[in-house]
Design brief:
Shape: globular
CATH class: Alpha Beta
Largest sheet: 5 strands, antiparallel
Strand content: 15-25%
Number of strands: 5
Number of helices: 4
Structural class: alpha+beta
Order of helices and strands: HEEEEHEHH
Number of domains: 1
Strand order of the largest sheet: 1-2-3-4-5
CATH architecture: 2-Layer Sandwich
Oligomer: single chain
CATH superfamily: YgaC/TfoX-N like chaperone
């Protein structure tokens, strides 16, 4: 990706994350502070931490169902940080199963589009 800042995530996880976001139209990668993420209207929708943890933003009911169905947890960019309230950590087995993950990614994109756009500083 030309012009992208260096990303500190483990290369194998980064490659899987990039493949994951490329599977859904409208999720374009951006980088900041050594991490890669996607955003819609200024609202983050997916991210990968320096530690290689992948997070997706889901609405409350779907978030609870995802956690239960996939034995997942709330996203933590770093084990010492508090969990991100609207993001779930994508379990390892789902990172390689794009057919199972794609409906959640499409839901993530729709949900993030429904949020109030954040103002830009530009």
């Amino acid at each position: 990706m030309p012009g992208r800042k260096a990303v500190a995530a483990p290369p194998d996880r980064l490659q899987r994350y990039e493949r994951m976001i490329a599977s859904v139209a409208g999720l374009d990668a951006k980088s900041n502070f050594g991490s890669l993420y996607t955003a819609v209207n200024g609202n983050m929708s997916t991210m990968i931490s320096w530690h290689g943890v992948v997070g997706i933003r889901l609405p409350p009911a779907d978030r609870a169902a995802f956690i239960t169905q996939h034995d997942a947890e709330l996203f933590r960019g770093d084990p010492a940080w508090p969990p991100a309230k609207e993001f779930v950590a994508v379990p390892e087995h789902l990172l390689d199963d794009l057919d199972a993950l794609r409906p959640y990614l499409e839901l993530t994109a729709r949900y993030t589009r429904s949020l109030k756009p954040k103002s830009t500083k530009r």
